[in-house]
């Protein structure tokens, strides 16, 4: 047994050199043949183009916090908890998918589509298998009963087909956030370069609008509230001023103390209404300034461009992959079927 094991494990360098000399040409020809097959196969693949844009978010925060302190979660404000690391989650949500499906697009040939959903479904045809299966398909309970009335408009009811479309559209957009410098990159890879660029621009707009609305929503509500109060206080001031001046006109020649008391009361009401109005106007202007301070600014480092060169398929990489796989398969054929080393061992 020891002799057999020793014979089986002894493979000299000379045997390895002889093996390479014997089959090197066969292995090279096999790898070259598979590389050519890989190149020919790459021509059958759909050409894809990648459009992208690069953003650098900047924040004007009155509290003195910088963008980097916000990115690591050191901020105190509740609205500032939306760190850039959460931006990919925004572009993976169902509302974002619904937003993209409604975007009008124009393809490379100049044909316009009212929304992306129609563009994606332009070449879809019902297969024979789908038609056969549809005969045996039973309606769901919801479709038999009609549309279900939901108690809240915030609850979404989406069919499987719509959910599939939303998932496929969300998968078209890729977002990456550089943790070191906060640079955000948005990419979209499609067969049509113009549509890819349009979707990247639409995704950028959705992301910026979402972040701005999130960070300024509380202060914007305060502005709306103060605007209503300013209108009310202004009306109250005008009413008080009119009452005061009307009383003075009616009692211009009166020297009664009762008349003076009433005039003093109307004057106090007018002064109070004027003071409240002035105070609310100041607070309103401060709230408007705060909205601008909390509003994030996104600088576009690299604008969206219609790609002119394809990003996929990569023919050299495809050829190398086919060559490696072909060489490995040829090596397995030599070892197990031609030389049958497994029987010798």
Automatic annotation (TrEMBL):
The chain crosses the membrane at residues 23-43, 317-337. It comes from the Bacteria. InterPro entries: Bact_polysacc_biosynth/exp (IPR050445). Keywords: Membrane, Transmembrane, Transmembrane helix. One of its GO terms (cellular component) is plasma membrane. GO terms for molecular function: protein tyrosine kinase activity. This is Lipopolysaccharide biosynthesis protein. It comes from Dyadobacter pollutisoli.
């Amino acid at each position: 047994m020891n002799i057999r094991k020793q014979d089986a494990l002894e493979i000299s360098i000379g045997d390895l050199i002889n093996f390479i000399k014997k089959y090197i040409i066969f292995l090279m020809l096999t790898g070259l043949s598979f590389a050519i097959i890989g190149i020919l196969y790459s021509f059958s693949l759909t050409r894809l183009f990648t459009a992208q844009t690069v953003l650098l978010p900047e924040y004007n925060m009155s509290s003195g916090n910088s963008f980097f302190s916000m990115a690591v979660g050191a901020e105190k404000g509740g609205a500032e908890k939306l760190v850039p690391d959460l931006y990919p989650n925004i572009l993976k949500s169902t509302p974002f998918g619904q937003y993209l499906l409604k975007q009008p697009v124009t393809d490379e040939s100049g044909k316009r589509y009212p929304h992306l959903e129609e563009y994606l479904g332009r070449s879809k045809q019902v297969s024979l298998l789908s038609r056969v299966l549809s005969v045996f398909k039973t309606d769901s309970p919801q479709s038999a009963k009609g549309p279900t009335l939901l108690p809240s408009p915030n609850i979404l009811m989406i069919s499987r087909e719509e959910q599939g479309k939303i998932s496929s559209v969300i998968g078209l957009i890729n977002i990456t956030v550089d943790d070191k410098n906060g640079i955000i990159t948005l990419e979209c890879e499609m067969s049509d370069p113009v549509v890819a660029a349009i979707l990247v621009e639409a995704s950028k707009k959705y992301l910026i609008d979402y972040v701005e609305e999130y960070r300024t929503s509380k202060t914007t509500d305060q502005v709306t509230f103060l605007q209503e109060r300013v209108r009310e206080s202004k009306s109250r001031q005008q009413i008080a001023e009119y009452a005061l001046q009307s009383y003075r006109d009616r009692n211009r020649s009166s020297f009664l103390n009762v008349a003076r008391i009433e005039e003093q009361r109307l004057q106090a009401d007018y002064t109070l209404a004027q003071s409240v109005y002035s105070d609310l106007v100041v607070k309103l202007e401060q709230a408007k300034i705060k909205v601008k301070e909390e509003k994030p600014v996104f600088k576009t480092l690299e604008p969206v461009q219609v790609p002119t060169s394809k990003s996929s398929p990569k023919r050299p990489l495809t050829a190398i992959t086919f060559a490696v796989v072909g060489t490995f398969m040829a090596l397995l054929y030599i070892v197990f079927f031609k030389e049958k080393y497994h029987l010798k061992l």
